[in-house]
Structure formats: C-alpha cells, structure tokens
Amino acid sequence: MNGHAVETASHLIQNGVNAAKTLVHEPEMHDLDVSKLTVSLTKSPGKVPEPDSLEIWDMKTCTDHMVKVTWTDDVGWHAPTIEPYGQLTMSPIASCLHYATQCFEGLKVYRGFDGKLRLFRPDKNCARLVMSSARVALPTFNPKELEKLLKAFMKVDGPKWLPKSRPGRFLYLRPAIIGNGEQIGVTAPSEVLMFIVAVGWPDLSSGTRPGTLPKPPGLKLLASKSDVRAWPGGFGYAKVGANYGPAFVSHMEGRKMGYDQILWLLGADYQVTEAGASNFFIVWKTKEGNLQLVTAPLDAKVILEGVTRGSVLELARQRLVSGSEYLPPNITDLEVVERNFTMLEIEEAWEEGRIVEAFLSGTAYFITPVSAISFRDEEIDIPMGDGTSGYYAALLKKWLKDIMYGNVQHEWGVVIDEE
C-alpha cells in the first residue's frame, strides 16, 4: 500500500471513530463551575455561640448553611448549591462506607481587626484536596473554582457568624469529598458528593476548655512504639480519612497516660515524622554550635504537606536571617533545615543541653509549643523560653496571626468580598 492509500485509510478510520462517538452521544464531562451556583437561605437560623463557650469547645456547632455539589460519571460535576445546613442521607452500600473513598481539607476564615473577612492561603488547601481526591480514585476539579465556592459560602454565613463587632475570631471550614454512590463492588464510585461546612472552633493553641483546670503551657508528646502512622510508598501525604482513624487507638491510649499527642516515629532508627495531625519542628544547636530549625522532609511522601508548615518555613527563611528587619534584638538568626532526623538525635541533643525549643504547626493547633516528649520510658523536658512558649514559636505565631487578621497586608491573606 502506497503512502497516499495509507493516508486515505487512516482518514476513513478516524471518520468512522468520530461517527461512532456521535452515534453513542459520548457525554461531555463538566468541571466544577461556580457560575452555576444557586443559593437557598434557611428559614430556621441558628444562634451564634459566645466566644470560648462550651458550644465552641464542643466543636459541633455549624453555621446556618452548607455547600453541596454532586458528581456523576455520566455528567461530571453538577451545579453547586448553598443550602440550609442539614443531615446527609446515603445508601448502606455507599462506596465511602466500605472502601474509604473519602478525603477532606481543613482551613479557617478569620475576622480581621480591620473588619475584613480573610482566608489564609486557600489556594494551597484547594490544590491539596485535588491531589487527595485523585489518590483515592475520586474525581478531580479546578481548584480555583473551589476557592470561589469557599468565598461564596462565607459571603453568606461570614457576616453573621463572624460579626465585625468580634474581630480576632475565626471559623473552621471543612470541605470534604465522599463516594456516596451505591457501589459494593471494588471499583471507583460512580457518584460522589462534595460538601463544605463551617464549624465554631476554639483556640487550641492557647485556650482552656471552660469548667476545667488550666493546663500547664505546652503540649506533652508520647513517642510511638510499635504503631506507625504512614510509610514510604503509602498515602501519608494525602489528607484522607484512612490516615486518621487507625491512629485514634494510640492517641486515646496516650491521652489516658496524660499526653496530648502521639509523636509518630518510623523505622528501627526512630525517625521523627509528625505529631498527631500536625507537623513537628525542633530548634537545636548542632555539635558544631550552629542554630537550626529542623523539620521532616516531604520527599518520601510520609508526612502531610501542611499549609502552616510551608508558611513557617517560608517566613523563617525570609525573616530569621542575619540583618532581617523582622528579627528582634534578642532573637538569633538560624538555619532552616528539612531532613530526616531521629529521636536518638533528639535524645542526644537533650543530654548535651543543645535543645532550644520545639513546636507543632497545623490548622487545628496553629503554632503550639511542646514542653515534653516521652521516649523509651524517659521524659525529655523541652525548654519553653519565657515559660509559656519558645521564642521562635511565639515570633512565627505572631507573624502568621498578623497576616491572618489583617494587621499587615500580605498576599497570603485573601480578602472575601462581603458586599
């Protein structure tokens, strides 16, 4: 067959394929599209809890509305809705109930001291939800549309639940995606639900639950023994429910022993990964006398790429350097290091008096100092600077709060138009 004949045959075959597609009416899969959003307001509005009340500390009080978006394998993403907050219904054979086809995000919306509502780096959370969704065979979407959806949601509920008369407050936002189609077979779900709720949330980094005795400052961590949270080649880097439920056993056992969180270790050398659902940082002096801020790396995909973690690292690299205008006179510049490190190194640094401080970072706990780590039945006391926090943790926390609450104008603080 000559070249012209081959070209003609290929053309005829392609025409046949196109004709077949036309005959079966192959559907166009729709992406998430906030321009199609509809809003249905509640007729039974709830009461906004008082700041730091028991209702806030119970973390069960949601705002008046919620976001819902359905995805089906024949249409793609349907039109999103903002509707009255209410219960979900699903089949007993829904995919998420049997195969953990579920993922979620956590971020906050803040009422600034300048009166404005802000999200903190929402693009990071939206992009991470896309990644987590793909990891558990759920559909992806345009992350910019999810950010628009979050803003639209808070334009409805933000003014009431975070009034301008109460600056310095926040709500916790929980976007989630679940495979809710009837799918008892081992396969990707044919129907999916994305929803977003907003919850009253306490300041876990420094507050105390009403009716309880004040706790000493700082968190006490219990180093894990036989359990591991995640492993190389697994899914520890994705924000999926399967990372959390199995960890509750160790967490609750640690609580009974008087510890706040589990410091998750990995391998025979006790490699430090995360603490609870937060990223772990330590400030120490090396044997050569260099001051370092150290945290675990992302390259093995064992730990979650925390938004607060990334922000801490960026600010530290920009501001905790010699000659920085942000560096107070009593604070020494340091080196920022992402590397694998072990509890054996922490233990040795403690014995040699080289530990300066340690803290956790995350959306729920924000920046919270660590006061002690129990490892191999020995309690390692962590210095606390002024007695309430390490100096570096306090400084980083202040810088982040200034951005979140509009004390300084920064690109990370994304303003929500309430007009």
UniProtKB/TrEMBL annotation:
Residues annotated with N6-(pyridoxal phosphate)lysine modification: 239
Reactions performed catalytically: L-isoleucine + 2-oxoglutarate = (S)-3-methyl-2-oxopentanoate + L-glutamate; L-valine + 2-oxoglutarate = 3-methyl-2-oxobutanoate + L-glutamate; L-leucine + 2-oxoglutarate = 4-methyl-2-oxopentanoate + L-glutamate
Any single GO CC term annotated in Swiss-Prot or TrEMBL for this entry: mitochondrion
Entry's EC annotation: 2.6.1.42
Cofactor requirement: pyridoxal 5'-phosphate
Coiled-coil residues: none
Domain of life: Eukaryota
A molecular function GO annotation: L-valine-2-oxoglutarate transaminase activity
SUPFAM superfamilies in the record: D-aminoacid aminotransferase-like PLP-dependent enzymes
Enzyme class: transferase
GO terms classed as biological process: L-leucine biosynthetic process; L-valine biosynthetic process
Family from the record: Belongs to the class-IV pyridoxal-phosphate-dependent aminotransferase family.
Protein name per Swiss-Prot or TrEMBL: Branched-chain-amino-acid aminotransferase
Organism lineage: Eukaryota, Fungi, Dikarya, Ascomycota, Pezizomycotina
